Structure prediction request, 213 residues.
Amino acid sequence: MATADEFPISRRGILIGGAASVATVGIIPPSTAAPASASSDRPPTARVRLDVNGAARDLELDTRTSLLDALREHLHLAGTKKGCDHGQCGACTVIADGRRINSCLTLAVMHDGEKITTIEGLGTPDKMHAMQEAFVVHDGFQCGYCTPGQICSAVAVLDEIKAGIPSHVTADLNAAPPLTATEIRERMSGNICRCGAYSNIIAAITDVAGVKA
Ligand code: FES
Ligand code: FES
Prediction:
């Protein structure tokens, strides 16, 4: 056990010293504070080249720009939606170099040179992707807000299973993951639908996958 000699400063002394420190900080006149550097007014920018839906897009961006904001605000591709902006809803899902990502959680500069596919790149109203058609056939949406993210995610999910990437519900990690409704449900669990269109969404995806819902 420590003796009083080992702690020569009393609790009262510490409190007084702490208060004095605070007071000292408080009396520094504003004029002595370090001047803000002129460059701090301008955010750092960087040149970013993205291949978006098959077209090269060159951007000069504030380095803090998320991929989602680069797509929506700078490239005016408003199909990708901003739901939570915190990685919790999946509305912002796009496919980057073949893998689905939450575009709100990543900076555009981190994807320089990558191939980005958004809902606009999967198909058009005249020439829909098979997954888009299936969502229409199975009524896999109500308000449609989450739908672009759901469809991008669904397309990538089927590719993930085909590529042998396991999920939380894959029982045998040494075998190819089975193409089942359970696997699809688990992998789609990051895409939230506030309208609750889940059963029809699963019906659409399993239809494209050729499995039973
Ligand atoms: S907006 Fe990105 S996950 Fe919700
Ligand atoms: S269809 Fe409305 S949020 Fe999913």
Observations:
- The chain has seven helices and five strands.
- Confidence is low (pLDDT under 50) at residues 1-7, 11-34.
